[in-house]
Every structure is written in C-alpha cells, then in structure tokens.
Amino acid sequence: MNLTSQSALKFFFRFTDVIFALMLAILSLAILLGTGKLIFDLWPLLHSQDISGSYFDIITDVLSLFVVIELSRSLAEYFHLQRLRLTFIVDAAIVSVLRDVMIGLFKQQLTVELILSLSALLLVLGALRTSAVLVFQRERMIDRTIQGNKEA
C-alpha cells in the first residue's frame, strides 16, 4: 500500500470512529431521556382512575428502552473490538420483535397469522444468533490453536 492509501484508510477509520461515538452519545442521551420520561409518566399513573391505559404506555416505553439499550451495547462493543458483532445486532432485532409481540399480546391486537409470522421471524433470528455464537467460538478455538503453535 502506498502512503496516500494508508492515510486515506486511517482517515476513514477515524471518521467512522467519530460517527460511531456520536451515535453512541445520542443513544445514551435517548436512554437517559427515556428513563426520565418513564419516571414522569408514573405520576399520572398514580392519579389515574383507569390503570390499564397508563400501563400500556409504560410497558411500551420500557420495552422500547430495551431495544435502544441493545443497540447501544452493539456500538459500545464496536469500540472494544473495532468491529460490529452480529450477536448484539441480532439481540436488538430479537428484543424489537419480542417488544412488538408483547405489546400486541398485552393489547390483544394480534391475529393468528401475525403471531405465526412473528414466531417464524423469531425462529430465524434465534437460529442466526445461535450460529453466530458457534462461529465466534470456533474462531476463538482456531485463534488459540494458532497462538499455541506459535509459542511451541
């Protein structure tokens, strides 16, 4: 590689690091604001005659915060390993689908077809996550074997 391509690559990695840091800061702020909103939403719940209506909103907000937390974990892992791990991204997708299922079940708005399709999606995401973990463990075993051979 020549000097210009190395400096361009270095600039690219710095630029992506800044973008990921900005996204992580925005997600952290969203988690903080979402938690604050959740706390403020408890006050009307205490004074409400109809409890179930307020619980829908609180449950939806809590489950949405779970999705944002999973996404922020993915970005935090990027800073640790300098790459995005598929398991954290799939975890966020699984949490998002489970959020929709739980809200739909809680509000009793899911049809049989939607439940079956979301179940199939969860099955595929679960299989993808399981295979990603197995591949990651296999890569770690190969790396350990290579490191053991270098030391011998």
Describe the secondary structure blueprint for this structure.
Elements lengths: L2 H45 L3 H31 L4 H22 L4 H40 L1
Notes on the structure:
With 152 residues, the protein is an all-alpha fold. The protein has one domain (3-151). Helices cover 91% and strands 0% of the residues. The chain has helices at 3-47, 51-81, 86-107, 112-151. The chain is extended and about 70 Å long.
User: What's the total number of strands?
Assistant: 0
Q: What gyration radius follows from the Cα positions, in whole Å?
A: 21 Å
List low-pLDDT spans: none
Global structural class:
mainly alpha
Overall average pLDDT: 83
Gap between N and C termini: 32 Å
Overall shape: it is: extended
Kindly give the count of domains: 1
Helix content: over 70%
**Approximate strand percentage:** under 5%
Main sheet properties? none
Descriptive terms for the model:
single chain; 152 residues; mainly alpha; 91% helix; 0% strand
Short description:
This protein is mainly α.
